[in-house]
Amino acid sequence: MTSSKIQSRMEELESLTIDNRERIGRRTGVPFIVFTYDPKDELSVDDTVEAYVKKLRNRGQSVERIDMRDLVFTLLEEERILDAVIEKEQANEGELREGLSSVLLGGRTDEQGLIAETIKDRIDDVDTAVVYRTGVLYPFAGISSILMQLENEIETPFVVFYPAVKEDKSLKFLDKTEGTYYRARVI
Length: 187
Prior knowledge:
It contains seven helices and seven strands. It is of the alpha/beta class. The chain has one domain. This is DUF1788 domain-containing protein.
């Protein structure tokens, strides 16, 4: 992720979260920022996230960095279902998708799922939260489900690095799923 277009967008993100924090939710009403990148760049994003978090910390911010892949696997282990998920993935992907959605997202209801609850607890006392490696959510969820569960629940600026293609006012997660409208500010 080194192109000048990405660099320009990173500068916009840094300006917003370091120097202009009061503007974060001004247009959207939520403290969410989604930084999109080409899904093919998934592996190189870690360096970008690390550099961004370092800049925030160097400017005196406390930052909670959330690796979504680690979070999902930790929650599955805590629920004692990781082995069953791995077996089910090979046997019946459709059933697995429904089961994971139910366990981790609360079945897409208005109540918070395990992911949103855990995130809320982890970011309560920090200046900025940064979430990355969100590709693990495919195919059972998109970040929109988690953001909806966090709406009106958090005030912490919440930055999500998201492998998606932007099309008008929607994002195609991993360039595969149908676009979803986001209230978040998309950079």
